[in-house]
Specification:
Strand order of the largest sheet: 10-5-9-8-7-12-13-14
Strand content: 15-25%
Order of helices and strands: EHEEEHHHHHHHHHHEEEEEEHEHHEEE
Largest sheet: 8 strands, mixed
Shape: globular
Helix content: 40-55%
Length: 397
């Protein structure tokens, strides 16, 4: 049997939180408009060697999942995200070098003032030295250092998991390949002069007619692979997320959250006083909880300082589930508390908004407001929209 052949683009540690029983989950397949009950969640959101036979990415994601799963389970159990405030003495450190010098000074104090046995001294010293090494590895190219994350390593793991979950799915790969080919056919290939030169070169060695040549251009398929795609997108997502805040959205209604095969929702909100915009990322981790990572100054101003926000409005739950449906590639998943009538309502309400394989464009900020609002979920005047169509009013205000 091949080792690690079945590679999940939505991990089992997330799917199982939406399971109906220990092994099974309910699924709705969008293409077939079919609700399937009690199927194995272990066989969902996976493909043979999706990340490659070398297992480099598979093992990398497995390590991230193993470190994040106990954090998610703790959040689900206690219904809270613990975010520690950075002590004032640490807040003076704004760069990695500043923090290293600060910790080294603390290390010197430990070495000279603590009267205890050597093993304890050594363990403290080793911990700090390993910590500094990890800092250098993670932030060696950074000019700004998010100190909050160092003081909250659990939050750092949540951010890392969410960043990669946003870009590791089958949907992102399919959409990227479609966009590449759309660009090639619409922008690069139809250049008349280039086409004439290409045809002349081909005609020297073949009997290709102009008609055959046109068919040849139309048939060109350019593909990327998930490894290359993740390398390109990872830094951008990590940069956006690492300088954000986190809050837990608690579902207090009797209708539960669903989870799609493309579960991270990416939302933009234009700042009123500038052409810049805030980013919000939503990741359901259970039928009652969503992790929300957002820029300071975003639409949670009323909750500054809080680590959770209760959602009591049923229309907001429907909207959040509708966004999972819109954002899905093929399927979405739910437990036995979500019934067929609720699924039918979501689909009927948002089927006209859903557009297959809508791509999250990564554009310069100056172009984002005019172009990105048609390709991601976009908040404007407290309305959340997708492809210019309204999903919900007064969204989470």
């Amino acid at each position: 049997m091949a080792i690690n052949k079945n590679q999940h683009f939505v991990p089992q540690m997330l799917l199982k939180n939406f399971a109906t029983t220990f092994k099974y989950i309910n699924m709705y397949t969008i293409k077939d408009c079919k609700l399937i009950k009690n199927i194995s969640f272990r066989k969902q959101c996976q493909s043979d060697y999706f990340y490659g036979k070398d297992l480099i990415l598979e093992n990398f994601f497995g390590d991230i999942e193993n470190k994040t799963e106990p954090i998610f389970q703790d959040i689900i159990k206690n219904q809270v995200i613990n975010v520690k405030e950075v002590p004032l003495e640490y807040q003076k450190c704004s760069t990695v070098q500043d923090l290293k010098e600060f910790l080294k000074s603390k290390l010197d104090i430990i070495n000279t003032t603590i009267e205890t046995d050597a093993p304890i001294q050594d363990s403290v010293k080793n911990f700090i030295e390993e910590y500094l090494k990890e800092l250098e590895d993670k932030f060696k190219n950074s000019t700004f250092f998010p100190l909050k994350l160092l003081y909250n390593p659990e939050i750092l793991k949540i951010y890392t998991f969410t960043s990669y979950q946003a870009i590791r799915t089958e949907k992102i790969l399919v959409q990227s390949n479609e966009l590449i080919n759309l660009y090639c056919n619409a922008e690069a290939i139809p250049d008349a002069k280039k086409n004439d030169l290409l045809y002349e070169e081909l005609n020297k060695t073949t009997s290709l007619t102009r008609e055959d040549f046109s068919k040849f251009l139309d048939s060109i398929i350019v593909k990327t692979d998930i490894q290359s795609l993740i390398k390109v997108l990872a830094d951008k997502f990590m940069k956006n997320i690492m300088l954000s805040s986190v809050i837990l959205l608690k579902n207090t209604t009797n209708q539960k959250f669903i989870l799609s095969d493309s579960p991270v929702l990416h939302i933009l909100k234009k700042n009123k006083d500038s052409q810049s915009y805030d980013r919000v990322y939503l990741l359901p981790i259970s039928p009652e909880l969503i992790i929300c990572i957002y820029n300071e100054g975003s639409f949670f101003l009323n909750d500054k300082g809080k680590t959770f926000k209760e959602i009591t409005d049923l229309s907001h739950i429907v909207a959040l589930n509708g966004m999972q449906y819109i954002n899905a590639n093929n399927n979405f998943y739910f437990n036995k508390c979500v019934n067929q009538q609720q699924i039918k309502f979501i689909i009927e309400k948002y089927i006209s908004i859903r557009t297959s394989y809508m791509y999250f464009k990564f554009l310069p900020e100056k172009e984002a407001y005019s172009l990105q609002k048609d390709f991601v979920f976009f908040i404007d005047d407290n309305e959340i929209k997708f492809n210019g169509k309204k999903i919900c009013e007064d969204f989470l205000e």
